[in-house]
Write a structure and sequence with these properties.
Two copies of one chain form a homodimer. By secondary structure, the first copy, chain A, is of the alpha/beta class. The first copy, chain A, folds into three domains: 44 residues, lambda repressor-like DNA-binding domains (434 Repressor (Amino-terminal Domain)), CATH 1.10.260.40; 128 residues, Response regulator (Rossmann fold); 130 residues, Response regulator (Rossmann fold), CATH 3.40.50. In chain A, 44% of the residues lie in helices and 16% in strands. A six-stranded parallel beta sheet of chain A has the order 2-1-3-4-5-11, sandwiched between helices. A six-stranded mixed beta sheet of chain A has the order 7-6-8-9-10-12, sandwiched between helices. The interface between A and B is large, with 48 and 48 residues. The structure holds a DNA duplex (30 and 30 nucleotides).
Chain lengths: 331, 331
DNA sequence: GCACGGCGTGATAACGTTTACATTCCTCCC
DNA sequence: GGGAGGAATGTAAACGTTATCACGCCGTGC
């Protein structure tokens, strides 16, 4: 790999002149510029982002980190695409990591981010009071939280109106005549989850339905817990007639449990999920869901991150996007 | 961010000694070691991977690149997870990029890989004679091809027995009584695609069925082209009674076209796809597919890459994994 | 008593950039 | 003709590591 040194030698100028030609900025006389450009071409020069990053204070690495629970989850994959599209449009590359909802993995990758001197990081924090994320945010690293947010530290946030989404979903079930509505939720220390549960409770209250505590079950956002909790609900003396599941993977788990017991959807059990799936339309039955604009969440998060990199001092912003209830045939 | 300098100053030793303590290797007298370790803790020292990478020749960046067409494609997402799992197990981080089956994007990201001095790259080349990939491979950068391979340059490859998979799929359709079997393929310059087509042809030949050329349609691996080509086949004077689609996205497109025309699967049209989907079981109808061990493909690719990084000179290896025909209710 | 070996440690070059500052060389004007 | 001023270019430091070499010190053996 040719370096500035070699190019400079070939063009018979100093490395400073080569650097000037590369960064277009300063004035170089046309003759030397031409000579340098020839040398650059001849040697097929490629700048080293590593050297550049080491030299520069920060903010010009053209590299950002993205830490998500699992890239195989279509919701996060869509966010990732949103981030990537905006990053690519700005010549940024992406360091992508899966935390698996595991604090140790998250911590490892946050360390990598620091060690790689990335310009910033986009992530959904593990929960409300994610120490590792709070630390790195307070150390001055630009952070944008997506989907979930932190409670003590102010950062830029792009989130969805989860309360509204859940409220709409549950109201829809109530309008269909359901009164006993099961809630399958995730970890209760996650902001997203709490808002969705509040939406559930408020929708019941608005309809004058008294909540049954045993219809609420908390899992861990993963498919298996959706399956297990659905079975728990089905085993109640008086099981619910409808299910509201707060994320996509647990919804798939719930469907598996229902299919296994040969229950008909929506006749025996109506189901509304949170997060759309690319295949929701082709599912059996096509699934009613609260659709989140995940690509847009990712895109805006990256935009916010770029703005913060440019202007580190600016006050943190929260962008709140609206979800949409997509009614299909599972309700 | 504390540097070696600062740690050395605080421990009243030279940076060389601090470096020795960090790299455990050489002998340091216990007293100094303790002093240095205290300083490291006090200052919360984190090594800079950037500086380290600049200094070292290559092979110790603990960073590899992964360039895939689209992370939203579950097949590539599963490969990505396989790569990531093996990378994490070896303390490697992953630079992930989506090429969108677009040579310019691919080229941009390959440049980033060089510029970031990654230790190696895992990717499915755009096609057989992907110049950009051949260039970087010949420049000495460790490359492992997954899914697809190159024709001129020998690299490590992890692939699936595509011929066998396609042969099994089409033989299965024939066994179900079909003689007019449509083939929806992707770009014909991709090795994977050619092998699957060969499997299709060989299965027909083995059954003594004479192929009909107009039943073969080539697309670009994307959902939309699956939809369009299915419609073309349906509009033939004598349409096929079964469809073999060579990848997952085009299969979803094909299903959409069939559903739109209210055709019953498998009665009006049987369908076999390539690549399993996490939701294939819950689809309407549950889809018969050739399942590829994508996670394993990714994992082994990363292992191969690590071995090559350790031993750059070793002759290129090809790992071939077996696919599996999963028979569900679409046939 | 002195040379020698070996161990612990320090000084320093190098990796490839960017950039502040120094230098050279014109041009122009008094 | 000589100095000022400015444009073009060069020099060198700095970023944070790793690795090579040199140095000083102590114990050992003759």
């Amino acid at each position: 790999m040719a370096s500035l040194q070699e190019v400079a030698a070939r063009a018979k100028v100093s490395i400073a002149t080569v650097s000037r030609v590369l960064n277009k900025s300063e004035k170089v006389v046309p003759a030397t510029r031409a000579a340098v450009e020839k040398a650059l071409r001849d040697l097929d020069y490629r700048p080293s982002r590593v050297a550049r990053r080491l030299r520069m204070n920060s903010g010009r690495a053209n590299l950002v980190g993205l830490i998500i629970p699992d890239i195989q989850n279509p919701f996060f994959a869509e966010i990732a695409r949103g981030v990537e599209d905006a990053a690519y449009a700005n010549q940024y590359a992406l360091l992508l990591c899966n935390s698996d909802e595991n604090l140790d993995k998250e911590r490892f990758y946050l360390d990598v981010m620091r060690a790689e001197s990335v310009d910033g990081v986009v992530l959904p924090p593990f929960d409300d009071r994610d120490d590792a994320v709070m630390d790195i945010a307070q150390s001055g690293m630009p952070i944008v939280c997506v989907d979930r947010s932190l409670v003590r530290v102010k950062t830029d946030v792009v989130e969805v109106d989860n309360h509204q989404g859940a409220f709409d979903a549950v109201s829809h079930l109530i309008a269909r005549g359901h009164e006993h509505i099961g809630l399958i939720e995730g970890r209760t220390t996650v902001s997203t989850n709490r808002e969705r549960r509040r939406g559930y409770a408020d929708a019941l209250a608005a309809a004058g339905i008294s909540p049954r505590k045993e219809l609420i079950r908390a899992g861990d956002f993963k498919q298996e817990s959706g399956r297990v909790l659905t079975n728990e609900l089905l085993d109640l003396r008086k099981p619910p007639t409808a299910l509201f599941v707060v994320n996509n993977l647990m919804t798939v788990g719930a469907l598996a449990a229902l299919h296994q017991r040969k229950l008909r959807i929506p006749q025996d059990m109506a189901v509304v999920g949170f997060d759309d799936l690319p295949w929701a339309e082709a599912l059996d039955p096509p699934l009613t869901v609260v659709r989140q604009p995940a690509h847009e969440v990712g895109r805006q998060a990256m935009e916010l991150l770029l703005k913060r990199i440019m202007e580190p001092g600016r006050p943190p912003l929260t962008v709140r996007l609206q979800p949409e209830l997509v009614i299909r045939r599972s309700t």
